[in-house]
Each structure stands twice: as structure tokens, then as C-alpha cells.
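Here's my example:
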Amino acid sequence: MHSKRCMWLAALTWIAAAAPAFAESVTLLRVFLNDGTAIVSYGEYARVGDRLVFSMPVAGAEANAGTNPLLHVVNLPVSAVNWTATEKYAESARYTSYIANSAESDYAALAGEVAATLNAIVLAKDPAARLDMAVDARKRLASWPKDHYGYRADAVREMLGMLDEAISGLRAAAGETSFSIDLVATTPEPRRDHVAMMRAPTPAEAIAQAIAVAKATDVPADRVSILRTVIAAIDDPQHVVPAGLAGPTRRWAIRTINEEMRLDKAYAALGTTMLKRASAAAERADVRAVQGVLQAVVRRDEELGRRRPDEINALVEQVRVQLDSARRLRLARDQWAERAGTFRAYMKAVAPVVEAMGRAQRTLDDIKHLAGSDAEALVSWDDRLTSHARMLNAVPVPDELKPAHALLSSAVTLAETAVKTRRQATVSGELQLAWDASSAASGSMMLLSKAQEDMEAAVRLPEIR
């Protein structure tokens, strides 16, 4: 999508930059719609992928007018255009414009170039150099008609004939007895099926064309913009539009703009409402409800006349994302329900250990901060922690809880180490052993907290992430 937008913007920039240059003398092309309507393209159009972009005069256009006409950039799908008729007319228009404006001067320049080359050949003394100049001149001359719409092709062929005779003589003078001719072949210019040029549209005709484009475009914002330009052209006193056309056209344009704005609001509300419903249903893992939202989107679009296919396609895609999320969550919750009994059994089995570790936090905190500890309490906790460690080794652990169980086991082991090491420090009076006990106590407290968090997360009812 991004590359298409960039291509369209590039075409739009080119047209905008070229518009001032067209004011002096511009070729009026025609874009033929599939219904046969011929739309004026003020200057060249640009085909960008499956889109056709061009400048359309909305209130008449004269190729040599002193002022710039009122233009509107049009962006149509190529599928709405009769491309064969459009290209055929464009070829004839370019030919007609070239013949009228540049052909004779270009031919005069060619004739002067040929004369200069012949003069240089005469003055050159090296036979090989003279031959090279003649052959090069012939190649340029032979390609000229093809690059200049076949203008004066007969005269060019006559010059080519004379050059061929001269080249034959120059080859003989250069001493070439055997050679292969490697020249640009001259072929008759294909016959052009010339299309009669249409006159520039009157303001009324230009407005009628703009209306046709507004009906043909598949971009609602472009349709509204074109119709607003039409209204401005009708209201401008400089543009003489018959009252019989101006009044009905203006009223129709206003009604259509109002209808487009109503549709914009309706489709915006549809998108907001349906996405909210789909999101809520997905969070409940209600697959049927999300599918119902998809069906509701299609029904409402039909009620609105299917006037915003791009918006609906985007909305359907977003709802389908929610549907996928609902299906994933439904499966995860079904799996959770299947395993819930196992989770409860495990949590019941380890509950005494978790509760005991919770009561041991005060003692472990004292050990951590080297704040002293009661000898009897240390002995008591040593025995209990050893028993808890054996208990954890015997508990069946569901796969989902194995990481959390490993953290809990490590927390108990570190707590046991902290108690034993603190007792050793108390007996020996060694400060380093007290610090070692502190590190073990700190690690135990941290792992217990993490184990509890992971257990709660593992047994919690799944939600959309």
C-alpha cells in the first residue's frame, strides 16, 4: 500500500509542477471512460500502477489561453477507462501538436546538421575519417523519422539515398574491397490511424465532464472535492453556464456531497461500533459473537448500499484479527479448563511449603541484614526446611508449573543453606560466614517472590495478550 501511495504522490507532484508550463501552449488529451464520455486531460496524464492521474479543467480550457484554467487533479482506476481509445487519441494529439509547433524547426535543424556533416566530409583529408563521418550521419538520419512522428519521412529517405551513394564512393576511396554494411535500416513509417482532434470544451461541457468523473471515481473524498469545485465554477461569474444546467447541476452536487458526508459518518460509526463489539467478544473468548459481528458488518454495508468497499474491507480484516484472537483464547481456556484440576491438586500439595516459607521471611530477613537470630529458631527452621525440601521432591508437577516449582525448590534450598550457615557463623563467630548466610537468605526471598508470581500466572484463566 505504501509504495502505491508514494507512486501516486510522485505522479501528482509531476502534474502540479508541469501545470504552469502548460499555460502558454498545452496539448489537450482525452481520457475516454468506459461509457464513452471523453474527459479533457490538461496536458499529459500519468499511469501509476492501476491508477490514472491527470489534470481536468472544470470550467473550460483553451490550449493557448492567457490565464490558467480551473483545474482539478483526478485519480481514476484504470478499469474505469477505455485505455485503447485514450492512447489512440493521445498519439494523434501528440502528433498534431508536434506538427503544429516543432516539426518544421526540428526538420530545419536536421537539414542544417546534415549540410554541416557533408561540408565536414568534403574538408576532411583522411578517407577513413570521411567514411566514418558519413556512416554516423546516416545512422542519425535513418532514426530521425521514427523519433519525430514520421515527419518529412520521404525527404529523409531521399537524403539517405544520396548518403548511401556517397558512402559507396567513400568506401572505395578508403580502399575497402570487402565489407559488411552495418547501417540503421530504413523502414516505411507505419500508417497512423489519425483521430480527429476535439475542440476545447465550453464551461458547460467541462462541468458535465467533471460530473461524469465524479460518478466514475472510486474515491469518495475525490468525488466530494470534484463536486465542490464544480459548485465553485458554477458560482464564478467568469464562467458562463446556461441557467438550465447550472441550477439543476448545483442542486444535484449539493445533494450528492451531503449524501457522501452522511455515508462517511455512517461508515465511521459502523467501524467504531463493530470493532468495539468484536474486541469485547474476543476478550471473552466468544467466537460466535465475533462471527456475529462479521455478519452484522456485511448486513449494515448492504443497507448502506455498499458505498465504501475499501473501508469495509479494512474493517472486515480488523474483525477477522479479533476472531483469530478469540479462537486462540478459546483454545487456551479450554486447555486451562482441562488442566485446572491438576493445577488445584498441585497448589494444594505445595501450600504448606509456601505458607511455611512465608512465615520464615522474618527470620530470613534478620539473617540477610545480620540482625541476629535465635539459636532455637534456627534449629527449628533447619529441620522444617529439610522436611519441606523432601516434600517438594515428591510432589507431581504439571508441565506448566515446572519452572515455578523449580524456583520454589531453589528458594527452600537457599533458605536451608542460609539457616545452616548462620548457625555455623554463630558457633564460630566468623563474620564471613554471616555474610554468606546473608547472601543465601536474600536469594531465597527473591526466588520465593518470583515463584509465587509465576504460579499465579500459570494457573490464572488465560486472557488476550
Remarks:
- The chain has 14 helices and five strands.
- Residues 360-459 form one domain.
- Residues 1-24, 180-185 have pLDDT under 50 and may be disordered.
- The first strand starts at residue 28 and ends at 32.
